[in-house]
Design goal:
The protein has helices at residues 32-41, 43-50, 88-105, 125-142, 156-168; strands spanning 4-8, 18-23, 60-64, 72-77, 110-113, 148-153. The chain is an alpha/beta fold and 171 residues long. It has a single domain (4-166), classed as Leucine Aminopeptidase, subunit E, domain 1. Strands 1-6-5-2-4-3 form a 6-stranded mixed sheet, with helices on both faces. It is globular, with a radius of gyration of 15 Å. It starts with a strand and ends with a helix. Bound molecules: adenosine-5'-diphosphate. Residues 10-12, 22, 32-34, 36, 78, 114-121, 152, 154-155, 158 line the site of adenosine-5'-diphosphate.
């Protein structure tokens, strides 16, 4: 059964149990998808984030979604790309896996991921997509809890990369 979907657009408009935020370690807001999520969710999201004491790279924390159509936000911190020799690949996989585990613990059924680390954090998009898809697919193969995991791509380059990879691998 295919439980992986691809969607191109703004993650803040998605009606899912939780959207994942590509946050920074402070969890106090930033640019890119993080800024968009805080703008739509409203100031109560920042208030809740302030109580979380930040988040380590590769880990994840959960808050309510406030004014977002999604009930929850899972904030994860992807690695900054420094050339690939200091554990960036493992940390990116860990950001996806930690988010999946946290969603599972909270009994959420539908989840949407942005392309973590591929904006300001400069992770190569093709490699990031391969890691994201492999991590999610492995999880789904071993656990039938989730109904649907959506990769929410924003830019055309990521859309093309994901379309090719998902078709190739017969998600
Ligand atoms: P990071 O710091 O982890 O690189 P960014 O927010 O800079 O995070 O970028 C992560 C990805 O999120 C990029 O591929 C960017 O195109 C995408 N993005 C930016 N805004 C949105 C949005 N509103 N919805 C979905 N994806 C978005």
């Amino acid at each position: 059964m295919n439980r992986i979907e691809l969607y191109q657009g703004d993650i803040t408009e998605m009606h899912v149990d939780a959207i994942v935020n590509a946050a920074n370690r402070s969890l106090l807001g930033g640019g890119g998808v993080d800024g968009a999520i805080h703008r739509v969710a409203g100031p109560k999201l920042l208030e809740e984030c302030k109580k979380l004491n930040g988040c380590e790279t590769g880990q994840a924390k959960i808050t309510m979604g406030y004014r977002l159509p999604s009930r929850y936000v899972i904030h994860t911190v992807g690695p900054v790309w420094h050339g690939g020799e200091i554990g960036e690949k493992e940390l990116l996989a860990s950001a996806y896996l930690s988010s999946l585990k946290l969603a599972r613990e909270h009994q959420l059924k539908t989840l949407a991921f942005p392309n973590i680390s591929t904006g300001v954090y400069a992770f190569p998009k093709q490699l990031a997509a391969e890691i994201a898809i492999e991590t999610v697919r492995n999880f789904l193969e071993n656990d039938d809890w989730f109904e649907e995991i959506t990769f929410c791509v924003y830019d055309d380059e990521n859309y093309e990369i994901y379309t090719k990879l998902l078709n190739q691998t017969g998600h």
